[in-house]
Amino acid sequence: MGQNLVDNGLSGPTSFVTIPENLRIVITKMMPEITRMCVARVEAYKKYNPENFDVIDEYIVKLRLTFDGGIRTLNGSDEYYGEEINKLFHFTYPDYDFVKFSVDEMDVRPEKTNYEKFIELFSK
Q1: Which CATH class for the 3-122 domain?
Q2: Cα–Cα distance for residue pair 9/21, rounded to 1 Å
């Protein structure tokens, strides 16, 4: 079982962890339905190399995703988005095989009403 980085005496899981800008750009271009994303928390795991018993640190970055425009904007479940973001990360940063992504929270905001769209367009 992993542990939150906050348990390691650090000030908090999101106080120092941000999504790299290159990855943020790639995700935005490949999945435009995601309007906002941030790190919810990070889990750290330790594994042992069976050949020499060296400790290998691994990390799971748990994301919070926001979608505007209602349920119709979704292309899949939280597992789908976690897998896709994982693929994009490993294409962008192939040397970081010890980092994985998963979606911890999905905030799906309702589609704007016609009144809200009208006010947004015609108000000062």
Answers
A1: alpha beta
A2: 26
